[in-house]
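To whoever is covering the structure queue this week,

Two jobs came back overnight. Logging them here so there's a record in the thread.

Job A:
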Amino acid sequence: MKHSFGSDNHSGVHPTIMEAILNENKEFATAYGEDNYTRSVLNKLEDLLGGNCTAFFVFNGTGANIVALQGFLRSYNSVLAPATAHINVDECGAVEKISASRIIPLDAPDGKVTPEEVKKGLTGFGFQHHAQPKILSISQPTELGTNYTPEEIKELADLMHSHGCYLHVDGSRISNAAESLGLPIKSFINDCGVDALSFGGTKNGLLMGEAVVIFHRPENTLPDSNGLPMNIQNMEAAKNLQYLRKQTTQLYSKSRFIAAQFEAYLKDDLYLKLAGQSNSMAKYLAESLKGIPEVEISKSVDSNAVFAIIPLWIGEELHKKHYFYVWDETTNEVRWMCSFNTTKEDIDLFVADVKEIILQHNK
């Protein structure tokens, strides 16, 4: 496959990350994350996020979300999430199957839920016939490429905590959000009251491996929906995560190879540099398409995704040369994803093909 605009998962592994794996491929090390090297890298990740948290490595994004959420759930609980959330649309019911907790989808036209919409799902507390709300899961950036502001995240966290519930962030592209906002990740995650984070890297140059982070929240002594102090629940979630990770088949025996990637990823802000490239290419793509009447940019370009509504005939011809997904078949809205290794030349060729298709169609 030539350059793909289908997904940032289609891109390869950044050379620095691959080199880090090869450099770690020597001698012996204790397995299952019990080696000193893995622990030291996890400490670096925890420090990056502002400390007072516990991080664990897992295999992939779906596993990260399941493990993170399970720490707060019992089978009779429910998970609130935007209807477009990855856990609701693209994880094959994994969260519901493994946790036995129901997902309650919320309306989110731009990918972001509002406090008013979340309140609609915060009902039925103490009513034995209803699943009990426990945690809100949002994505940063969202599946529609938009970013929450720190103020918006804090407002959602405060709302959930006021109801004895928790906030989880699916950060499969968390580096793209940080680079786009121009803020350290801690400032819109830890500092805003988030309880659990899925920290991604595979979409941004890693071979495999993500992290689950639980924030301890010692200051939050409000009772949760089970009547327990919420700070105790956070500590329990962190303590139990190692067992949930194993049960969910997310414990990698040769953990040091995930650790090696993360060490290289965090060193000298490589994670931000790679995200910066994909973000800037998405903005360049959107800017290059301006002025073409047949192409309507349909979502704010806040990260590395460009959403557009195009005529069916453009999509059909463009698919012959470039890989991408139709996001909404009813409107023919498409999604074009840029990656850490997308170049201006890739964009220029893509835009030239769009213009040529239109030219030939109008002859």
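Job B:
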Amino acid sequence: MQFQSPQAQVLCSELELIRQHLTLADTTVLELGCGTARITRLLAEQFPIKRLIATEVDARQHEKNLASHYPTTIEFRSGGAQAIDLPDNSVDVVFMFKSLHHVPLPLLDQSLKEIARVLKANGIAWILEPVYAGAFNEILRLFHDEKVVREAAFHAVKRAVDTGIFSLDKQIFCHTDTRFADFAEFEQRILNVTHTEHRLSNELYQTVKRQFEAHRGTDGARFDNPIRVDVLRKV
């Protein structure tokens, strides 16, 4: 397994990748760490999923999700990947979109075992993680360096494959397109997230703003973010 692929430069979207590689018709799907549920809603709207369970460990964000309008196929639940409140062999596909590295390091291996437990035989775990590279990462690491946790998440997946919990179906490397209209949107979406408290000094805040503004054009700021998708199959 590769942690990253410097040669991968193709732009892609999460939803198009899913269309290319998975069949979701009449499936029970679990999304772990759904955050603001942006992708959750798109999955429910664009794919013929029978049941979509979306969990979030951040209590404040979970309450916001419950209070929002959403398709009836979605079930929002509170909880983390390390203890999934579902029966054995009950889910066809598990998605994690840039959320595995947010699991506390001591709970990574347990989380992957839980994913395998709830998956049906031959079920798929779709683990999408950001690669530690790129201009956006250089801004992020000024106030929230994720090098250790991203590497730990990768090695946990590799251990799950090496020990036979999963087989590796494939790895996909490409770049996603992230855009911000201005620094105010960056601050709202990145600095003011409820799951992590970012405390920046005024000096650091200004440094982050300067680096962001260096990438801003007439139509906002755009970043190509390298990602890796580990597609795992339950053994």
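Note for Job B: The mean pLDDT is 95.

Please reply-all if you pick these up so we don't duplicate work.
Q.
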